[in-house]
Design brief:
The protein is of the alpha+beta class and 408 residues long. It is built from ten helices and 15 strands.
């Protein structure tokens, strides 16, 4: 069972959890190191290394990404020394390299605020610990009061995703335009974009969320006793008094950002003790990218003149300048479950805490159908299956504030 402390230790050993700018770098390192440790990829790599002394994960020994690399020349060379089945192994290893490179290169933003953790089980258990009760004064000759601990008990099952890609043998061996490699790279690119959609869908957690043919479920870590989760107003707070959204949603502006900061700084845990939440990142959609840039970077007060006697106004300092980093995503969902690019939803989060995780059982795994059987034999094609086993969800939403669900 993973606790918050376990995750923190994991972060320290795989790239110490540091200020906001380091979280993305740490997540990238975790994913990169995880690729060739997956069972399918590890077995393929070790088998070819043992048989031929070639490490297919080394771009110098196996330069499949080089423009001068030729599958036709490789097939000819292998045919002189071994059976054609060996070419199939190298072909699969090549596709694995191509998809992994595309996976890592694609422009995604979830790494800015999500904690990526390797998974080794079908279902991972989490136990965010909210600590013990607050200490009390002890009178003369009075016993010390016993304090109880409080924690959440959550579990998150890995879900399977994937697709099939078929290529004619002639196209592979005679490809002069690089189209085969570009098409194969989309296998990896789309699987990482799926992570992006998954994380932002779970962040919104509204009914009927869908992107293309992918239907995204709402948060799967909701405790049975919560009535409003993950976004709870003051009227129906999380157990202990946690509030994660305003009573009435508001537009992305200075006043509403300040209100969110104040609320998170007064956030309460299960024991009704104020938590050490430090808002450090604002997440918004493309339609609000310029407004957010003005709010966070203006030297002067960004909200216009103030009434007589009020603090602020034209030429006053900007109190929220540099107070948080900004993340702009193409996949911001609105209150209707749509990610059409027009959503006005925005969130304020503390990205120094592992409050939302993306667990990866398999990042990108490539399997190939036997070319001497089935449709591959009938049609003279190579068929590849790309697979990913991941899931993402809240561990503790108290470190986030939903300023607007897109309805305002």
């Amino acid at each position: 069972m993973k606790t918050i402390e376990d995750i923190k230790k994991l972060l320290e050993t795989t790239g110490r959890l540091k200020p906001t700018s380091k979280l993305r770098e740490r997540n990238k390192k975790v994913v990169h190191n995880f690729f060739w440790k997956q069972d399918e990829a590890k077995g393929l790599r070790e088998g070819l290394k043992k048989q031929f002394g070639i490490d297919v994960a080394d771009p110098e020994q196996f330069p499949v990404m080089s423009e001068s690399f030729s599958w036709k020349k490789l097939r000819t060379k292998l045919a002189e020394a071994d059976a054609s089945s060996t070419f199939t192994q190298f072909l699969r290893a090549g596709i694995q390299n191509i998809t992994q490179a595309a996976y890592e290169a694609v422009d995604t933003t979830y790494e800015d605020w999500v904690t990526v953790v390797p998974s080794t089980l079908d279902t991972e258990l989490y136990a965010p610990n909210h600590g013990v009760s607050f200490p009390r004064e002890v009178g003369p000759q009075m016993p010390y009061p016993e304090v109880g601990a409080a924690a959440l008990d959550l579990k998150l099952k890995n879900r399977k995703f994937g697709s099939m890609y078929a290529v004619e043998r002639e196209l592979l061996e005679d490809d002069q335009t690089g189209s085969f490699q570009r098409q194969a790279s989309l296998l990896g690119e789309y699987l990482n974009l799926l992570n992006e959609v998954l994380c932002y869908g779970k962040l919104a957690s509204v009914a009927n969320m869908q992107y293309i043919d992918y239907q995204i479920p709402v948060s799967e870590t909701k405790p049975s006793y919560e009535t409003a989760y993950p976004w709870a107003p003051a009227a129906t707070p999380l157990r202990g008094g946690g509030i994660t959204r305003p009573t009435a949603y508001g537009a992305l502006n200075q006043a509403n950002i300040q209100d969110g900061i104040i609320q998170l700084m007064n956030q309460k845990n299960l024991q009704e003790i104020k938590m050490q939440v430090r808002p450090s990142r604002i997440i918004a959609g493309a339609t609000q990218s310029f407004d957010l840039a003005v709010l966070l970077n203006s030297a002067y007060y960004p909200s216009g003149a103030a009434a007589t006697g009020d603090t602020g106004g034209a030429f006053a300092i900007n109190p929220i300048k540099g107070i948080a980093d900004a993340t702009i995503t193409r996949y911001m969902f609105d209150q209707n479950g749509s990610a059409d690019g027009l959503s006005k939803a925005w969130y304020l989060v503390d990205d120094s805490k592992p409050w939302f995780v993306l667990q990866q059982r398999e990042a990108v795994a490539i399997m190939q159908e036997d070319p001497a059987s089935g449709r591959s034999f009938e049609l003279d094609i190579y068929r590849f299956k790309s697979r990913s086993r991941v899931n993402g969800d809240f561990i503790d939403p108290r470190f986030a504030w939903q300023g607007n669900d897109g309805s305002v």
